[in-house]
Write a structure and sequence with these properties.
The protein is an alpha+beta fold. Among the domains are: 93 residues, no CATH class; 62 residues, Arc Repressor Mutant, subunit A, CATH 1.10.10. The protein has 7 helices and 8 strands. The radius of gyration is 30 Å and the shape is elongated.
């Protein structure tokens, strides 16, 4: 069996063959160990003054803004121990950040080292709601199609335009109204490359972004808006992004799989 190597693999091999970079893998491993040690020390310092609220034992971090105790207690230290610096209110985890439940001010968590806040429960709930809406729309479409079927068309003999009063005249008027159309009218040199829009959209999705804030690629604002929307529809179908209505605009965010892998 032969495995085709990608350009990235070949570039990486050439880099490793450079004598100046022979020790790069060992250096990267040491950097990872140093980062891990710094993270562990940082959280030991941060949690040393916060005992377990159940048994008073020592808390240890085991995930992004999540710590546990030997007694089995698991809690979010940002919500439990970090108040709002403005009003002293309790923080709450939103979909990508923490915010004060009282004044709604966004507050950075002190219990995140090199991670991002992420509410899996929020996205699971939104995905469940999305699936429910899609199922409801599908059922509504099925009911509409079932009631919109045309009556049966009996074909006792050959088809004749004269059998429908006025049809021949209407067809003649329709064809005559069209006039002559040049082939040049159908040639549009301003081509639409969806992949260009896809790359721009994904490059700017480090956080949620409004549809109206996505940079344009076309001077014609109406045409560019239609192309951006068309690209997002295909990207949502391919489970690359999620779209959430926001007034006359909507939020665009990277798709995150839920517990069912959807």
């Amino acid at each position: 069996m032969y495995v085709l190597e990608t350009n990235e693999d070949l570039k990486f091999e050439r880099l490793l063959g450079n004598p100046l970079l022979e020790g790069i893998l060992a250096a990267l491993a040491q950097i990872d160990e140093l980062k891990k040690s710094a993270r562990d020390y940082y959280f030991q310092v941060m949690l040393c003054k916060y005992p377990c609220p159940v048994c008073g034992g020592r808390l240890r971090m085991n995930g992004p803004s999540r710590c546990t105790c030997k007694c089995g207690m698991s809690l979010d230290p940002t919500v439990e121990f970090q108040p709002c610096p403005e009003c002293g209110g309790k923080l709450a985890l939103k979909y990508f950040h923490y915010a004060c439940a009282r004044c709604q001010k966004v507050v950075p968590s002190r219990f995140l080292f090199d991670e991002r806040a992420f509410s899996a429960q929020y996205f699971c709930q939104k995905m469940a709601e999305c699936r429910e809406r899609k199922q409801r729309r599908l059922e509504e479409m099925r009911c509409w199609l079932a009631t919109s079927r045309s009556d049966a068309l009996p074909l006792d003999g050959g088809l004749s335009l004269e059998s429908v009063s006025g049809l021949a005249v209407a067809l003649d008027e329709f064809i005559g109204a069209a006039g002559s159309v040049s082939l040049a009218d159908f040639l549009i040199f301003d081509s639409f490359y969806m992949e260009d829009y896809r790359r721009v959209i994904l490059a700017g999705l480090d956080e949620c972004r409004l549809f109206s804030r996505i940079p344009p690629l076309c001077e014609d604002s109406r045409r560019d808006r239609a192309r951006r929307f068309t690209t997002l529809v295909f990207m949502q179908h391919e489970c690359e992004v999620d779209l959430i209505q926001h007034g006359n605009d909507f939020w665009v965010m990277r798709h995150e799989a839920d517990a069912q892998g959807c």
